Structure prediction request, 277 residues.
Amino acid sequence: MEIGRITTLHIVRIRDFGAFLAAPEDTDGKDTVLLPRKQMPEGAAEGDAVEVFLYKDSDDRPIATTRKPKLTVGETGRLKVRQMTKIGAFLDLGLERDVLMPFREMEGEVAPGQEVLAALYVDRSGRLAATMHVYRWLKAAVGIGKDQEVRGTVYEIREMGVFVAVEDCYFGLIPASEVYEEYRIGQEIIARVMRVREDGKLDLSPRRKAFQQMGDDAALIMERLEKAGGVLPYGDSSSPEELKKAFGLSKNAFKRAAGRLLKEGKITVEEREIRKK
Prediction:
């Protein structure tokens, strides 16, 4: 019987305080776990099969529950922070007891009431615990293709890019070359799949394909122009770094959008200036 898993056990003995369960192969009923009376199905009898989740109670004893947890061991998902303590955060697992997430297993700022992307695991003492370091529990993408729009949660930020749990369970990465804004741990985003790698990991972009994105980029430039009184100190000779900082755009994206506005007769473009007509 594995802690942190949903399993089907059989009732071998019933007492006033609950039922003792054992695995089907344990014919002698020597290795049992308690299912408290309040968790027993109505009309339960010895010999009945019961689907339960196994964890440890406050006295560190294995115990069963018929309540369905929000996560089982090895799964990733969003859990609400119930409280912060001296040893870490306690998260709502949907059971009688909350699950501990030690400080060393946190990423970014964590506060009560917040939802965090976490994975469930069994620690060295055999107790259930949670972690925000979810990389090892994410899976290869299934049923997701190139150019598809996906939802994801940011779980790590490094020099190579922004790591995203796509659909909260698949490997995803926004490469540094595609990062044009600030991200934070726990942020939910919508992104486009640029590439599905052979190992099932996904390369993502927060931007749509160029011909689709151009209209939004052009609208952004016009909005900034209007706020600045019709003139901005950026043009053909502006560096990629300047344009990224000013607009959150690559130089190619800026040139495509500005070119569209120029063609439509809405702006003029010079080496170091764009001006609204």
About this structure: The chain is about 15% helix and 40% strand.
